[in-house]
Amino acid sequence: MTAAVEHVLKLSGLRCANCANTVKKAIEQLADVEAEVNFATEEAIVRGPASVQSADLIRVVEAAGYGATEVIDLTETNAAPRDTLELVRFWTAIVCALPLAIAMPWAWLSGHDMHLPVLWQFLLATPVQLWVAWPFYRGAWYALRLGTSNMDVLVSLGTLAAYIYSVVIMLSGTHADVYFEASVVVIALIMTGKHLESRARKASASAIERLLHLTPKTAWLEKAEGQFESVPLAHIRPGDRVRVLSGEAIPVDGVVTAGDSAVSEAMLTGEPVPVEKRLDDKVYAGTLNGDGVLVCRVTGVGRSTVLAGIARLVAQAQGSRAPVQALVDKVSAWFVPLVVVLALLTLLVTGVWLGDWNAGIVRAVAVLVISCPCALGLATPTAIMVGIGEGARQGILVRDADALQRAASVGTVIFDKTGTLTEGNLRLTDAILAPDSPMRRQEILSIAAALEQGSAHPVAHAIRSAATAEADGNKFEVTDFRNESGQGVFARIDGVSYGVVRWSAALANADNGFWQQQAGQLAQSAKTLSVVLHAEQPLALLAFADTPRPDAIETIGLLHRLGLKAVMLTGDQAASARVMGDRLGVDAIRAEVLPAGKAAEVKQLLAAEPGGVMMVGDGINDAPALASASVGVAMGGGMDIAMESAGIILMNNRLTGVVDAIQLSRRTLAKIRQNLFFAFIYNVLAIPLAAAGLLSPVIAGAAMACSSISVVANSLLLRRKR
Description:
By secondary structure, the protein is an alpha+beta fold. The strands form five sheets. It has a seven-stranded mixed β-sheet, sandwiched between helices. Belongs to the cation transport ATPase (P-type) (TC 3.A.3) family. Type IB subfamily.
């Protein structure tokens, strides 16, 4: 498919997982169109050629018997509009069912026939059966027309069978039981269950709404020098200056131009400690200002803020499908036809073998009603939705459900060293000059800084900082500059070739082993080594020290407690890497790995790990490795390209967030398994009981509604503090 365009549709009228499959099948009848339909979020993510417009998609969804509206901005539209007609149908079913429902237990308790007259039952049942249940019939018809089946088919068959049978008995004057109350109460219970289930699903999807509600609706805009006026946020544009008073939520993304304050970013990162903000520091919409007053230049507002981006990411992830859902879809596809066959067999066996067609109809209706695959359809998406929302609250952004599922099974976690296991703030500690060096230390540092000018590598930062601190006033113009990835930088100064390169064994024998001896001593202190070359000969050996993150050792220990192995991946020399690895407690070290070779190392480790591997990094050169792992994790303080390549992003920039992400994924997968167990065991136990006549249609309807609600409620337990 070329030039694919993505559309997001908000759906209405979905009553079970098979309804979602019906919509998917309808959409994919369009040429070159692929769709993901999520029952729990009631959304469809559709990808297709530019020639397919949103109006075409809405048309085919409506032709399948469901409603759809296009979602223009995921940060603004998260809930379908309230369906007033659906509420009227619901309350009509309740009002008509109550007299019948109250009479049934009263008759059981008193031992007398307390049922309403048959005519009254008929009058109460008819509007429910013919009008309230009409959406079920419509959904069943469209599903059958598309060659599929869903909950609507089961409900329609079951309740219509009971209603039509009762009408025939009433009109014929035959002295036999009628089941108007069964059809009415079943429909009322199913609609009650759907109503409660919908409310529970909205509670599970509220993570996005909680994020978006953090941003205030107004801001103090500078109208004139030093004069600020409160205006709606829609009037703010990038480049404007806004004032944030103490205790207020920051309304925009911006850069501080005046003032200083401590800002709580817990709502974005999960980090409880406020961050000090001063001149030129970045601030983010939705964060909470402390005691100070800040004046900021706006860089992002509304949907262009970091907060809005997070909300979009969470919304897309909640709507994505976990791989385990594919199995559920296959089961649901053949489940409904199988239940219809079982209901027919129940009817025939009871009527022919036992000679009781009356009981046969009741048992068949009970089988149809109790077998609705609602709980099965909700088992996976509700857990995914709550899990991803809970992760966002903790500062763990999960890009899609696939990443969440894969993170639960990884057996090895691979860490990039610089900037991930360490602070990434290298500092020059040693500059060893050749015994007969023609230059002074300051001059060599100035040359190295000239070569590294413009580089974002931590070594380059350290060289420039040291050269600035020891400036000797010399300025060098470089020509013929080239950057060889993983090796170093090269250029000419006054016609002479210079370079700043990684230390390698090829330099060991220069100057009668002098450099090898010096490098060996420095490597024992876990220092990163670079060499300044002059005419392709070593001129100076530069040593840089980095500090391990405060939580690095704790993180490795926690991973070991979870039964996982930790591997350190670095371009540093083997001796230096070994010292750092031993200090941190990692299980294995892959040293002297060039940036281009990181992905290959990850693939090699992946081949040896059946459960998969997780790669944690933050830099540009980590992006291919992140993409090659089963799950890539990007530190929130890292480069955008690394974050784009990762399946999980740690906004709080804490290394222990890796452990939190794995534990969250494991808990979410555990909930999915529990939900699927509940759904399957419910049907395995309930269908035989209904076929044996031990469950009436009314009890079956109530049990079916409770099963769906219990699955959603179990998923909501992911929100509990742990």
